[in-house]
Specification:
The chain is mainly beta. It contains five helices and 34 strands.
């Protein structure tokens, strides 16, 4: 019923605002600072404290002016990436935990922090669910305009949960001109993905509607050594099943300008997914499936106040329906419903050398589970204050910030101090020190999950972190190099609870330190080179001698990504290489119990061979060398895969600036 109603509503909206857009062509449309739907190229940037004047109050640059921030333009990778995790995986100190092919769960590890210690937002709407982990497989690339990544303590600016960092996924913006586009991809494992989008004038504003869908059979063959203790043992051919997935959804956005330079943005996003769950190598499943639906609603008002002030107010609501069926009796978690909604008010004023920002936020969360009639809810409330002090003709900036937060019955304090120095001639340095917390999730506190028991006595996790970096940039080069260190305390881990159950306790602690390098060069309009490298060391600080001093599992020491794009739009080629070192799979630290290192080489080519409408065909080969690896449970991951993509973009009334993108 919900899906049928959605389809009728979307079709009606498309027809109505397309008619309005055509009428708007006869009368000059209001000016818009947002980029139109055709794809443009914007550089990936590392922000170290220089303010971008056009950036809105809630942008990553404004929220943390000295933070280790990388902005990735998703439009630069049109037709190339299969999912959001693939784009994020190229950033320094971000490691994707992948459990399969298209549609299978994907989460992030940032600077050694667990996936539930990384906050993920969709246009400011929190995506971390009842378990504290955000699943990136539910966010298709088609929805996105850019991704804002903050590495390091994010508690002061984004709230509880940001031990290792925060990621804000910014969706595509509507346009006042009538624009439409579509894309379809077909490739290995019988994978099909498609989306259509249209934008135009509607009710004195701009509207965007985007529909997307996809599915993959997912099965693939692999070879396994059933007797690894014997030398020269013949490999056995096996087939990885339970890797299929299908899903779809819609994005609706509306923007309306207000007097005085203000505007109102409204968003509605729906995601539907059904996928098989393979289980683990030790306990595979034969019929287990997961059906998940997410509805996100958001509205934001923003306007300037004179020449030195600006403010914004946001409201959001999200509801997740999660159903798991087909498992062993007594282990199924059954149907789960997670709801979160809240408001946030933020203001900023420039007073001489100081730029003061204050944020007030409040929200409510609840989760219900059919098994045992379990339910839990709580309130969140926080106050954040930040001062951006500029000295020596704005060459030196000091940015202290503090968030006081109440999450359920936990009181949290998250301070941070940042500084940046502009040394001239493109050189600069930045440094940060801060504290963040993660309150235990609903599942850890209150909800029994099969053989996993809750523990309402848990304390919040805490992270103390520092980082520093130097950068150099000019019209061609953008280079950043730095280091970081963090101490994680009161980490929550599960321990055996007789007879055959597991229960979480605050008995884990860890230390993480490392170095990061990011490079981007654009010597010609048709040539782009990017590279990132991260060296990460982890150390278990729990007192048990079996684990003390050992490296943390699933944290590779080395990760390097290099990418080259050559050629104009009418014909270009690209290649990307990812090298990742081996990683342990348990706390004991035995080398034989580890996932091997991996080297993934991907190549592709694209050609925009026709204009008005723009027709682009792309061909990509992922994992060219057919390197075989496994997920964190030991299940094999797909090998070599090939995809072909056809993209269409129609702009019936191109303007002079139709190929110039405004700043994000």
């Amino acid at each position: 019923m919900l899906r049928s109603l959605l389809a009728r509503t979307v079709i009606g909206l498309v027809l109505s605002f397309q008619g309005q857009a055509r009428a708007g062509q006869e009368t000059p449309a209001p000016e818009s600072s947002e980029p139109p739907l055709p794809e443009f190229v914007l550089p990936t940037v590392e922000v170290i404290g220089k303010e971008v004047p056009e950036a809105p109050v809630d942008s990553a640059q404004r929220r943390d002016p000295t933070g280790a921030i990388t902005v990735i333009d998703a439009r630069e990778r049109v037709g190339e990436a299969r999912d959001t995790a693939e784009l994020l995986g190229g950033s320094a100190s971000l490691v994707v935990q992948d459990s399969g092919g298209y549609g299978q769960s994907k989460s992030l590890v940032v600077r050694g922090a667990s996936s539930n210690g990384v906050l993920v937002f969709l246009d400011g709407i929190p995506l971390n669910g009842a378990g504290g982990v955000a699943d990136l497989s539910l966010i298709p690339v088609a929805l996105l305009e850019r991704m804002e990544i903050l590495r390091g303590a994010a508690g002061a600016r984004y709230g509880a949960g940001g031990l290792g960092g925060a990621v804000n996924l910014v969706t595509r913006a509507p346009s006042s001109r009538l624009l439409s586009s579509g894309e379809v991809t077909y490739g290995s494992f019988d994978t099909v993905m498609a989306h259509v989008a249209a934008s135009g004038a509607l009710l004195e504003g701009q509207a965007l509607v985007l529909l997307h869908g996809g599915r993959s059979q997912g099965d693939f063959s692999y070879r396994v050594d059933e007797l690894p203790a014997l030398d020269d043992n013949p490999l056995t051919q096996e087939v990885r099943t339970r890797n299929d997935a299908r899903g779809g959804g819609a994005l609706l956005k509306y923007r309306h300008g207000l007097d005085g330079g203000g505007r109102v943005d409204v968003l509605a996003e729906l995601s539907l997914e059904d996928r098989a769950l393979a289980g683990t190598v030790q306990n595979p499943t034969v019929s287990r499936r997961q059906d998940q639906t997410r509805l996100s609603l958001g509205a934001r008002w923003a306007r300037p106040f004179g020449d030195t002030g600006e403010g914004s107010a946001r409201g959001f609501f999200r509801r997740d329906w999660l159903d798991v069926a087909g498992g062993t009796t007594g282990v199924d978690s059954g149907a789960q419903r997670y709801t979160v909604g809240g408001v946030e008010v933020e203001g900023r004023a420039v007073l001489g050398r100081n730029a003061l920002a204050v944020t007030l936020a409040g929200s409510s969360e609840s989760v219900t589970q059919t098994v045992g009639g379990q339910a839990a809810s709580w309130w969140r409330a926080s106050v954040m204050a930040m001062d951006e002090l500029s000295l020596f003709s704005e060459r030196l900036k000091l940015v202290p910030s503090l968030r006081v937060e109440r999450v359920g019955h936990y009181s949290l304090l998250s301070p941070k101090l940042g500084a940046s120095v502009d040394l001239g001639h493109g050189f600069g340095v930045r440094a940060n020190a801060g504290q963040s917390h993660r309150a235990p999730s609903f599942l850890e506190l209150y909800i029994r999950q099969g053989l996993l028991l809750p523990n309402p006595e848990l304390k919040p996790e805490r992270a103390l972190s520092v980082d520093a970096a130097a950068l150099w940039r000019d019209d061609i080069w953008n280079v950043t190099a730095g280091g970081f260190a963090a101490v994680y305390e009161n980490l929550i881990a599960y321990e055996l609870y007789p007879p055959n159950l597991a229960k979480p306790y605050n008995f884990a602690a860890a230390r993480v330190w490392g170095a990061e390098v990011e490079l981007e060069a654009r010597p010609r309009a048709w040539l782009t080179v990017t590279s990132s490298y991260a060296w990460t060391r982890t150390q278990n600080r729990y007192g048990d001698p079996r684990y003390f001093g050992k490296e943390l599992p699933y944290r590779p020491r080395h990760k390097w990504v290099g990418r080259l794009r050559v050629g104009p739009d009418w014909l270009n080629g690209r290649t990307e290489v990812l090298v990742q070192s081996s990683q342990l799979i348990n706390r004991v630290g035995e080398a034989r119990l580890s996932l091997p290192s991996r080297t993934w080489v991907s190549v592709g080519t694209s050609s925009t061979f026709l204009h008005r409408p723009d027709l682009t065909v792309s061909f990509d080969v992922k994992n060219l060398l057919d390197a075989r690896t496994a997920d964190y449970t030991g299940m094999p991951l797909p090998g070599r895969a090939a995809y072909v993509t056809l993209s269409v973009a129609l702009d019936p009334s191109p303007s002079e600036d139709s190929h110039v993108a405004s700043p994000p």
